[in-house]
Design a protein that fits this description.
2 copies of one chain form a homodimer.
Chain A: E1 2-9, H1 13-33, E2 35-43, E3 49-51, H2 58-68, E4 75-76, H3 80-86, E5 91-94, H4 106-115, E6 119-122, H5 125-142, E7 146-147, H6 159-165, E8 171-177, H7 180-190, H8 195-205, H9 213-216, H10 219-233, E9 243-244, H11 252-260, E10 263-274, E11 277-288, E12 301-307, E13 311-317, H12 322-339
Parallel strand pairs in A: 1-2, 1-5, 5-6, 6-7, 9-11
Antiparallel strand pairs in A: 2-3, 3-4, 8-10, 8-12, 10-11, 12-13
Helix pairs in contact in A: 1-12, 4-5, 5-10, 7-8
């Protein structure tokens, strides 16, 4: 039996859900791939770092975190950067909190892993939005995997859909509704709810961040359409190059007027070729109520991909929870095993 | 450079569109896979059969068909069955007209190809709906490919989506709107059009068959949900086991009453586990106008797949034309190359 060792950078909700999924599906992985997947490294921002080349006991680590809020076993005195420079792992799994403006520390971690000849899975949109071409080329040159399905629409196949099911088809346009926070806010405003109430309820439900401006002003959506365009259209964009407008200026009156015309307002992302060059935007648009996009509500999201051979194909992720984010990472781990 | 030889059984709209696509994308196939794809056999019901082990000139064959309605070059005196028993090919591509009750001659052709150790691509839902488990097992035992993406939703990834992008996820439910004829009829009835006018317009547009009962009474949809259930849930169903009701009894009054309740009527296919056993139905259902399914109009179709790890994911094919059917076969050819 083969062994694959993971270094989990970040162990928040997604990392913990991934650990649970790995424990649950380990027998299936062994049966299908004759490979045991171990976690040899876990790093966190404030709860300590773990190292165990023989495999961290995930059940115990989760238990310690739950009971004490900190790890007790396998604790390393090294910092995260030193760990990934020196410790033993086959795949770096990047799940650190996102800084959409600097893409750090994620990008440095990824470069470090590639320099050591390790595969990388990133759940973090920063590196794919800011440095995709460089990172992809480095992975290709070294024969390493660089997978990032989770960056857009959690584990729902988007990058993987094009690579594995739309082979030799050339992507000419990508569009979608990719930010649940703004989707939820627009929907609740239309129902007559007050802005501040909506935000606090979204926070309780766990999908509106403390700093909601990233979502509301369209930065998150811009990062996602950039990631899609870079990977699927080889666009070489950065989020700054996206013509971005958020929903901050949308009023209840705008929504009511749209409604009277049989429309709803949605924050739409789109990237299409203009004179052979990929141009991307994020902006609120009025959508006919009979249109597919009008039915994408709450945390549900959609990506539509137009290609030369298959015209328009759309993929919808329905009301994901944290397990669906974890599955993005889990599926990428399986793809690394297949490519090993 | 490697060579892959195809036997095209059937050369109707789909076969011809596939031949065009193959000619157009041959350079890309060679570049990506270092493989030249040749067509060594073409059989038709009434226009003659072609055999050329060195590769049929597709441009000439298409031209002859267009000009004379029959082939002139490479014509064989053998019948289709004799050809696939004796002539040279690596992959049988089954595109003969469907008999949904007997699944013939498609199933016999497929068994013949497997017996000779040849891969099979089927665009025909009969064999997958009636004999999937037997055919899959035979292919597996002999290490052969048996691909059939085109059977449901043309080239839009459905079977391939689950196999290649939802790895290790267990399918617990499948639902969808899979028959465009009934979808179109219900939509036009709701607009106030007369039944007979709708049928004749659909025939002009090319997507309502001469024998429209197969669609209207739900046989086509039953075949598709059976194919999905057999492949994705290992259900071992046949179309006869589907609880089937078509749209033949839906009146304009039913549609109006539904409309007054904020609903539309759609022909829905579904298969779910009941006490661990897959149960499938096809029937008209009232769908809330705000629901995703209500926006699936005309020739657009949708499949929703629920799994243990990814909850519900849907794939939508928007207004396909014959090229999108051909892409289903084309994508399967690329997968055979990758598996060779």
């Amino acid at each position: 039996m083969k062994t694959l060792k993971l270094a989990l950078m970040g162990f928040g909700n997604c990392g913990r859900a991934f650990a649970e999924m790995l424990m649950q599906k380990q027998p299936d992985i062994i049966e299908r791939y004759n490979t045991e997947v171990l976690v040899s490294v876990i790093t966190t921002r404030s709860r300590g770092n773990l190292v165990n080349p023989g495999g961290i006991n995930l059940a115990r680590a989760l238990e310690e975190l739950k009971e004490k809020g900190r790890f007790k076993s396998d604790v390393s005195s090294k910092g995260a950067q030193e760990i990934i420079e020196t410790e033993d792992y086959d795949v770096l799994v990047e799940m650190t909190p996102l800084n959409i403006f600097t893409a750090e520390p994620a990008t440095t971690y990824i470069r470090t892993a590639f320099a050591r000849g390790r595969h990388v899975i990133s759940a973090n949109k920063g590196p794919v939005a800011w440095h995709y071409r460089e990172l992809r080329n480095e992975a290709q040159d070294k024969g390493l995997c660089f997978f990032h399905e989770t960056v857009v629409m959690d584990g729902a196949p988007v990058f993987n859909l094009v690579e594995n099911t739309l082979k030799l088809a050339k992507v000419t346009e990508i569009s979608g509704i990719l930010n649940s926070t703004t989707n939820f806010i627009l929907e609740e405003l239309a129902r007559g709810c007050k802005y501040d109430d909506i935000i606090s309820r979204g926070r309780e439900m766990g999908f509106i961040e403390e700093d909601s401006a990233m979502d509301i002003e369209g930065y998150d959506a811009a990062g996602k359409i950039t990631a899609l365009a870079n990977v699927l259209m080889d666009a070489d964009l950065t989020p700054e190059m996206v013509d971005r407008k958020g929903i901050e200026d949308i009023t209840i009156e705008d929504i009511r007027q749209a409604d009277a015309r049989g429309k709803v307002i949605k924050l739409i992302c789109r990237c299409a070729l203009e004179n052979g060059k990929a141009k991307a935007y994020v902006r609120p648009e009025e959508i006919d109520k009979a249109d597919l996009l009008a039915s994408i509500n709450s945390t549900t999201s959609i990506v539509s991909i137009t290609t030369d051979l298959m015209k328009k194909t759309s993929i919808v992720e329905h009301e994901p929870e944290i397990e669906q984010t974890a599955y993005g990472v889990f599926g990428d781990v399986l793809r690394v095993i297949e490519n090993e």
